[in-house]
Design goal:
Its main location: mitochondrion. Pfam families: Ubie_methyltran (PF01209). This protein is an alpha/beta fold and about 300 residues long. Helices cover about 45% and strands about 20% of the residues. Strands 7-6-5-8-9-11-10 form a 7-stranded mixed β-sheet, sandwiched between helices. Strands 1-2 form a two-stranded antiparallel sheet. A two-stranded antiparallel sheet has the order 3-4. The longest helix has 22 residues, at about 230-250. The structure holds S-adenosylmethionine.
């Protein structure tokens, strides 16, 4: 195997370490295998939380969960993470450190998938502006659920920023296909607490690879696997209490039950990393946060 050091785009921090890279031929093979696997995966059933449901039904069920929680989305996140999601999201944005550098010619083109609330999209644009005086980079905020997307737009309107802004577009799209997003058009693909809800996660990763330009980065924040037995015991107990809290805070037991189960069903970090590699990404890696309660995953398109 020929090992090369990956050439990263200048704005990808050194902390997102360059790992030995496969040869281009291997990379192409990995990518086509990923596509084949995605095709072969067209089985009839999948999981919805702990239940087995028809694949065609899952999208609707997930849709109704997020339509139910859309207007109470902040409360939901605060309840589920004890407010820590705000720290995770800040770290996610700071670690990526993306933005058009003052001497760069071209702005960056971001896409935030499953971005409903706008938390990540607006945070990324704020970071680019405050740190690099970047007011040119563009953002597509996409989500499968129009209700979630409306919450993001409402938030933009209320904060008086990124609403009716030609740089920022809100678009209803399934992250598995991103039909309206051109191939090789984006520099940064982010997805935060969204990909575990996809019916076909591998298809979502393959699509992320498709829409990114060579040199672009896939960058994901998602619940993960707790790596400390003591913390895990507490976490398991907390997971049992969550649906009850959901019913008290938002009068919605079932949606919270689904969210807990969807976390339990999500692949362990090593397996998720191998799915990212299967899609064709190089230099894939991850950073566990808060004893592995969640993790940041990344990969670079070569
Ligand atoms: C927990 S919210 C995360 C929202 C936001 N990214 C954040 O970090 O606060 C999950 C989002 O994933 C969206 N979603 C679920 N399946 C999707 C899919 N296949 N394509 C695009 N978005 C999807 C939901 O509609 C919902 O808005």
């Amino acid at each position: 195997m020929v090992n090369k050091v990956l050439v990263r785009p200048a704005w990808v921090k050194p902390s997102i370490r360059a790992l030995p890279m496969r040869t281009l031929r291997q990379a192409r093979n990995v990518h086509s295998t990923a596509k084949e696997t995605a095709k072969d995966n067209s089985i009839e059933t999948t999981h919805f939380g702990s239940k087995t449901v028809a694949k065609s039904e899952k999208e609707k069920l997930v849709g109704s969960v997020f339509s139910n929680v859309a207007s109470k989305y902040d409360i939901m996140n605060d309840v589920m993470s004890l407010g820590i999601h705000r720290l995770w999201k800040d770290h996610f944005i700071n670690k990526l450190d993306a933005g058009k550098r003052p001497n760069a010619k071209e702005p960056l083109h971001f896409i935030d998938v499953a971005g409903g609330s706008g938390d990540i999209a607006f945070g990324l644009l704020d970071h680019a502006e405050h740190k690099f005086y970047d007011k040119e980079s563009t953002m597509h905020v996409v989500d499968i659920n129009p209700d979630m997307l409306k919450e993001g737009e409402k938030r933009a309107m209320n904060q008086g920023k990124y609403f009716n802004d030609p740089r920022v577009k809100f678009l209803v799209q399934n992250g598995e296909t991103l039909d309206q997003i051109e191939s090789n058009s984006k520099d940064v693909y982010t997805v935060s607490f969204g990909i575990r809800n996809f019916t076909n996660i591998q298809a979502g990763l393959n699509t992320a690879y498709r829409v990114l330009k060579p040199g672009g980065i896939f960058y994901c924040l998602e619940f993960s696997k707790v790596d400390n037995p003591l913390v895990d015991t507490v976490y398991q107990q907390w997971s049992k209490v969550l649906p009850v809290l959901g019913s008290v805070v938002a009068n919605d037991y079932d949606s919270y039950q689904y969210l807990v189960e969807s976390i339990q069903k999500f692949p362990e970090p090593e397996r998720f990393q191998s799915m990212i590699e299967k899609a064709g990404f190089q230099s894939a890696g991850y950073e566990p946060l808060t004893f592995g309660v969640c993790a940041i995953h990344w990969g670079i398109k070569t």
